[in-house]
TrEMBL record:
It comes from the Eukaryota. This is Glycogen [starch] synthase. It catalyses: [(1->4)-alpha-D-glucosyl](n) + UDP-alpha-D-glucose = [(1->4)-alpha-D-glucosyl](n+1) + UDP + H(+). Residues 657-667 have a biased composition (Low complexity). It comes from Drosophila hydei (Fruit fly).
């Protein structure tokens, strides 16, 4: 793929423009961000918009306004309703639409940055749906089926937003003339095809507003990959109109493609998605806008290693309960791997993950029989209830702990009383027969004939469930001889979960390796979240995150980013590569894993919105210059971005003796204690001042 068109480099970070909208206000520059998932949690775009809100408001201040649909269930807890101040053109535009019978909610989003919000009640304009569809047909020749409710809602919201922006522009011009300001420069940024309807209407009505359209994943691409298609090798061969028609999404595809071609600037979230858009939407992206994270939320400064140990102990507690009666492995030599996300078995790579675990199981039996890997698969799906055996295990372990604590207190009291009398107590005086009976009862209760379950819930239609079917095929049944143990948890983790009792973030911190061998992943927030928390991860060169890391890190593996090739080699070779990566990680001793976590955590700056937000700014600037040729901005002076390139770590030996090619150097002193690695020594070892 030609990177010339898809990557814009800059020598500046977005934080260089954090003035709370002071410059934008003087330039009379306005930014509107439109998405279906503004204050409406549906999927990954919600995470993008929400996490970016802080840096967006730091840059644009009151010149930024986010727009989306009003969904009462989410809005009730996510927004603080309030009106715009009098004299503000935003208030005038809102009142103009309210006079037409539209219900509009304004206020602030209760997230970091507290951006201004305008949410449109779609039901209040439903009576004009036929009129909107008629205009869409007459101007664009796009017809929408009456029963497609989602597209109907997108059309209503798109027209409401277009009418609002047209009114706002008119009021902003009058306001500028009355207050002797420069003419308003307005840019509207639309995310995904649902919001793209508004962009189409703006352009067909010839309203002078700069537009940016971002696709986070192409609509047709998702459908094609869900059908087990050899997607990337046939991208240039698909008859896109025919394929969209077969899947009854032709009208949606037309809306997405129309927004793509009408936008002044078109962006995608990764180069792999840009390659996909070039063939399916027939336009190359002007700029790649990678997704970032609000790293402050995940940063633990000097404590993230300690937080890993604390969270790992909580996972140990779950493992003790789930595998009760079969704890034949040392928890200090146990590694926790996990995969999580939407339940898209093939797209998320769960198929090759389970197959690779079967091969890892065979390799561990032969090479490192004292090491155990517990693999967690967290995919929400339909369940009947918790697995009774799993719940019983946690109850039995709790009973054993309570019994031992009671015995411990009784023994301590007897020891104190005996010593008080002036002689040393004997074993029979400390541990009495009643205490032994209580302990034996608990131990006998822990015995069981069956093997530990591979799932924590009773999965609905479990015989046809793809994860369970794959586990059965690979014979990963948690037997005594297996070095890889399986735990399928078919719901998202929350702190109220009776089995784990920890939320997703804490669970990630406690694991050793995140494995995400996705086949279709336009970006990939799960490995990115691992990275900012200092947890090594496996990704692929078909995910946006993997491509981004390959581009900006000279040796990703040494920083704890393992990239599986799923694009240029066959499936069998990809499975073998993944199993080899996991085996290499299993060979690391504790000190090596600590050094690797330190390196991984240092990549968090690379994924911070303060770094990546500059690309969104450059997209807006390019759109403004397309509509307002006289507009000049210093971020258009693109230069080299050397601060975004991570070289190979200095502590990486060119020819290691007891370590693999790109693994951290082994301990000189042979110590495996976590406390033996301090920050200064580790920094010195890596050659960093």
């Amino acid at each position: 793929m030609n990177r010339r068109f898809s990557r814009v480099e800059s020598g500046a970070d977005l934080k260089d423009y954090f003035d709370r909208g002071d410059i934008a206000s003087r330039e009379n520059r306005w930014n509107f961000e439109v998405a279906w998932e503004v204050a409406n949690k549906v999927g990954g775009i919600y995470t993008v918009i929400r996490s970016k809100a802080y840096v967006s408001t730091e840059e644009m201040g009151e010149q930024l306004c986010m727009m989306g649909p009003y969904k009462e269930q989410c809005a009730r807890t996510e927004i603080e309703e309030m009106e715009f101040p009098r004299g503000n053109p935003l208030l005038d535009a809102v009142n103009a639409l309210r006079s037409r019978g539209y219900k509009i909610h304004t206020g602030r989003w209760l997230v970091d940055g507290n951006p201004q919000l305008i949410l449109f009640d779609i039901g209040s304009a439903a009576w004009k749906l036929d009129q909107f569809k008629l205009e869409m047909w007459e101007k664009c020749n796009i017809g929408v089926p009456h029963l497609d409710i989602e597209t109907n809602d997108a059309i209503i919201m798109g027209f409401m937003i277009a009418e609002f922006l047209e009114e706002f522009r008119n009021f902003a011009i009058s306001y500028s003339q009355n207050n002797e300001l420069s003419p308003p420069r307005i840019v509207a940024h639309f995310h995904e095809w649902q919001a793209g309807v508004g962009l189409i209407i703006l352009r067909t009505r010839l309203i002078e507003i700069a537009t940016v359209f971002t696709t986070h994943a192409t609509l047709l691409g998702r459908y094609l990959c869900a059908g087990n298609t050899d997607f990337y090798n046939n991208l240039d061969k698909f008859a896109v109109d025919e394929e969209a028609g077969k899947r009854q999404i032709y009208h949606r595809y037309c809306l997405e493609r129309g927004a793509t071609h009408l936008a002044h600037v078109f962006t995608t979230v990764s180069e792999i998605t840009g390659y996909e858009a070039e063939h399916l939407l027939k336009r190359k992206p002007d700029i790649i806008t990678p997704n970032g994270l609000n790293v402050k939320k995940f940063s633990a400064i000097h404590e993230f290693q300690n937080l890993h140990a604390v969270a790992k102990e909580k996972i140990n507690e779950f493992v003790r309960g789930h595998f009760y009666g079969h704890i034949d492995f040392d928890l200090d030599k146990t590694l926790y791997f996990f995969i999580a996300g939407r339940y898209e078995f093939g797209n998320k790579g769960a198929d090759i993950f389970i197959e690779s675990l079967a091969r890892l199981n065979a390799m561990l039996k032969h090479e490192k029989p004292d090491t155990t890997v517990v693999a967690f698969l967290i995919f929400p799906t339909k369940t009947n209830n918790f697995n009774v055996d799993s719940l019983r295990g946690h109850a039995v372990i709790k009973q054993l702990r309570d019994t031992i604590n009671n015995v411990q207190q009784a023994v301590g009291k007897r020891m104190f009383d005996t010593c008080l009398k002036g002689h040393i107590p004997g074993p029979d005086e400390l541990l009495q027969k009643d205490d032994l009976v209580k302990i034996k009862r608990c131990m006998f209760a822990m015995q069981r004939d069956s093997m530990p379950p591979v799932t924590t819930h009773n999965v609905a239609d479990d015989w046809n469930d793809p994860v369970l079917s794959s586990i059965r095929r690979c014979h990963l049944f948690n037997s005594v001889h297996d070095r890889v143990k399986m735990v399928f948890h078919p719901e998202f983790l929350t702190s109220t979960n009776p089995l784990f009792g920890i939320d997703y973030e804490e669970f990630v911190r406690g694991c050793h390796l995140g494995v995400f061998p996705s086949y279709y992943e336009p970006w990939g927030y799960t490995p990115a979240e691992c990275t900012v928390m200092g947890i090594p991860s496996v990704t692929t060169n078909l995910s946006g995150f993997g491509c981004f890391m390959q581009e900006h890190i000279s040796d990703p593996k040494s920083y704890g980013i393992y990239i599986v090739d799923r694009r240029y080699i066959g499936l069998e070779n990809s499975v073998q590569q993944l199993s080899n990566f996991m085996m290499e990680f299993s060979r690391l001793n504790r000190r090596q894993r600590i050094i690797q976590r330190n390196r991984t955590e240092r990549l968090s700056d690379l994924l911070d919105w303060r770094t990546l937000g500059i690309y969104y700014r450059q997209a807006r600037v390019k759109a403004l210059q397309a509509v307002y040729p006289d507009y000049v901005d210093e971020t258009t002076l693109y230069g080299s971005r050397n601060n975004l390139v991570f070289s190979r770590p200095h502590s990486e030996p060119p020819s290691p003796t007891s370590s693999r090619h790109t693994t951290p150097a082994p301990s000189v002193h042979g110590s495996d204690d976590e406390d033996s690695v301090d920050e200064e020594t580790e920094l010195k070892e890596l050659g960093i001042k």
